[in-house]
Amino acid sequence: MSNENQTPAKKLTLKENYALMTRDLGWETSYQPMDEVFRYLKFEGIKIHDWEKWEDPFRLTMDAYWKYQGEKERKLYAIMDAFQQNNGQFNVTDVRYIQALKVFIQGFSLIEYTSHRGFNIMSRELAGVGPRIAAEMQALDELRHTQTQIHTLSQYNRYFAGMEEFPYMFDRTWYLSIPKSFFEDAVTGGPFEFIVAISFALEYLLTNLVFMPWMSGAAYNGDMATVTFGFSAQSDEARHMTLGLEIVKFLLEQDPANVPLVQKWIDKWFWRGYRVLALVSAMMDYMLPKRVMPWCEAFEIYFEQNGGALFADLARYGIRMPKHYEVAIKEKGRISHELWSIFYQYRDAAGFHPWLPSEEEMDWFSEKYPDTFDKLYRPRYEYWRQLEKEGRPFINSNLPQLCQICQWPMLFSEPDDPTQTCYRETEYKEEKFHFCSDGCKDIFCDEPEKYVNAWLPVHQIYQGNCLLEGVDPTAPGFNPLAEALKYMGIKPGIDGGSLSASADAHNWEAWTGRPHNSHEGMVTEPAAKAA
Amino acid sequence: MHVEIKTNSVKPLRLTFGHLARRFGDKQATRYQEATYDLQPSVNFHYKPLWDPEFDMYDRRRTAIVMKDWYALKDPRQYYYGSYTIARAKWQEAQERQIEFLEKRGLLLNLPVETREAITFSLVTLRHYEWGANTNNAHMSAYGWGAAITQATMMNCMDRLGIAQHLSKIGLLIDGNTGKSLVTAKRFWMDAPEWQGMRREMENMFVTRDWFELFVAQNLVADGLVYPLFYQQLDSQMAALDGSFLSLIADFPLRWYDECGKWVDSVIKVAAAESEENQKLLSAWIAKWRAVHAAALTTIAARVMGEHAGQAVANVLDVFDARIKKLGLARGSL
Fold this sequence. Notes:
The structure holds two protein chains of two kinds. By secondary structure, chain A is mainly alpha-helical.
């Protein structure tokens, strides 16, 4: 028996430790063929020669992950508890900010869940240990984001409309099919398309455009709970962004045949992501009582400058700027206004309360959007304001035509003529399909079989598929629009409708003694202050 | 002294979200409830997955088990992300102290070479078993239905990576951070005849598509045999040799096994109580996987436990069968 002392253990660097703890955990199967164990790695045409070439950017072992994340959660929940105890929901600027929070819980919290599912699939289907572990951690992070967002917003839900049915709405509400279809599109693509779509195009290229206005907006508007969540999620996001860049470089370096595929996905997912972000443009410009910066400026910094530098760096792989990026640049002075106009017209069918911008806000727009606002949008708002004054506010009760891909109503204007709505169409199997842009049309034409299945809310209403059980469309007095709204989880007059008439506005003024809209003043008499 | 602190209170309009009020009444929900129930999208899916066009992206038909409400499969530990990571971080602190204790004194490094070889052969090799279990739990999380079960399987997936890395760390303590024991253990997993039964069954689980069957095969049956055999039976044998501190190595996996077992049992119990059809399916799956896993384990036990192997395996199977009976299921016959 040899019992004498061995050479003392050598010190390991973090990198070495990670490599040893993780290396070679996986194996080449021999009792079952690898192609049966990992079934989805070949059909997209991506070629991976050596998964071991994947350099894990984080080198986070599980024990470190638990420790680090557990510590973050302890802090986050302590602040959330304090926020609730102190009725922090009444400390935000005014009730317009609450409307932005509704858009988030309705539209974003469950795309984090869908992302969680997508990364679950990656953590099963990728063959390399390194990328799988990265996907696993991100899958868990995405679950974290869903859950912490719900926990943060739960307090607001107790006092304001439009949040209580968020999971039900996510599956059914017309404008929520925009984020829902976006993420489902990514998850139903192959694993490599998913990872390029989400990790690269969304997380790396576009996420700052969501995160910055959301979190800064929360900070500017006194929302301590959301700001804390934001700071806490930021280090997760930084990891996810790094993963996105690593994965794209890995794919590009593995085989030159991967380059055109990756380029195609970057083109597609830039455009798809950019269209979803239109929602954020409206939020930034219209829904924050204390504004951070206009959308056009954020777009310049986070896409034109940062994105431009990124693509200059990727040029050595043969990757160029995403197709139609120049259209996005042309639209930067327009989309937030075009979008807000749509929400205003359809306010009775929305799950939050849109309003018309005040004089002060319009002056800010004139200053920030000197080329577009006064010429194109101010006259429209002034006209609508006049109609409101006359007691006959403008309402659009026609169902809009939707884009087959991004599912927005046809609201975007021609790239070179902001006075004309942009329409594109194509025929597939003797049916006509409609699009908001060349970007969306290209996506359809590349994979028509996939996109003919899209669940377009307006089509579904017309086909009679948006009715609650037991509703009889042949009954006298049947109102298809009212029934469709019920199906979608929107209580007319409570969740939607104009802000100044809403229960949110009236309750806010009664509870806080402050105007529901700090630019417009009180809508209730101080005497009516009772709740 | 207790004084009532005066706070400015406004009566809320509602106490919780609609979907939770419908399930539990309009009262303040727990954080677990808010973080779990009805979160997974369930209707109006847009596209057929390119990788599996017969099914929707989320699809109840990916298992033969039928549940009226998949959220009945709740986690008795009530783990959501926050409570999960905080609980694991706490374990990790204890674990770190134990590893430090072993490391400082060079306790594993200075073991007789035979003991070190035995630990490498039996325990370090299990890191590949854990990685396989990680893969299987990733499958359940990728294709399961309902956030209640899939968030728990995802946490399980991460737990298995944690345990695989714990076993790797044991290897590094044995080989003085050279990684030699890890290379040797991989060779055992790939080529040692005694390990091949276990690797074969792991690979057979990799191609088991029904995610609930996989839950039974991996989390109930395989773990229900492997953990007691390697961490309890083997531990007591090695302790008899000269490795009493082996219980320090086994502490984390065993603690995990106890905790996780409560969740596994509760899931199986609820699924079985749902219908006779579920019961039959579960019993058949248990019988099928018990047979193959037990056979594979018998081979490896014979090598690592010698003459005690027969008794050890019999003990483990007895405990397992009693557990199945307690869950209201038949062990099933072949």
